[in-house]
Amino acid sequence: MDKILKTSLLISILLIFGCNNSDEQNEIQQLDCLPTGLQNGVVAFYPFNSGSINDESGNNNNLANTTTASATIDRNGNTNCAYQFNSNNNEFLTLSNPTFLNGIQSGGFSISMWYLSENEGAGLMSRGNDFGNCAGGIGEWNLSLWDNNWPVFFINSYRSIGVTPNPEIVQLNEWHHLVVTSDITDLKIYQDGILIEDNENVICNSGPTPSLNMGDLFIGEFLSGKLDDIIIYNILLTQTEITELYNLTPCCS
After folding, report:
1. What is the pLDDT of residues 206-234, one digit of tens each?
2. 67: closest CA among 86, 50, 43, 91?
3. pTM of the model as a whole
């Protein structure tokens, strides 16, 4: 009887250590997707590997899909490594009560993503989805595209509009890299590694200011197109870091 008990205990210990090792290996694989220097300050990371909508930063800020949004090919043709949205079907990904975003704007933060828009004007990401402050603003902050597909970032009562290098060309059905950095009053927008807007103290008070630290996280709402490799940082990225992000291959395994 003692022998059986000891054997069972040994098997249990081996299983526990085996699970722990597996978790460690998965975490290493997730971190290896970004170079070491680009891992600093990551609070959420959505590369959509194998169609997963989990946060691969290790912070467990996992998304939910209550719509018909679906995995699709990424910018390098990898299957199930990006996400497709159709605004006509009200498709989006979401995270309820994202407390990890509370107060993030006070210390400065950055958002990096790849997008492909199929129509003029689109939503990309927002904290909350109630309409307020600036015309076109949604929630506490939001990143979107205007009718001419210029990237626009709203936060509280501030707005920044990124005029693309070729403003007369509506860039549809093309993959583009987009980064915004914000310390509330100084907003910067980078497209394909290039700084296309740097606005400080650009205030618009055309509507009510949304409450801070409230609202769910919405990704892909009001977009007909694709998104990939979304990263939220709690730091202000530098030009060097943004250039490195732009030159990375898709995080797809």
Report:
1. 666 666 778 899 999 999 999 999 999 99
2. 91
3. 0.85
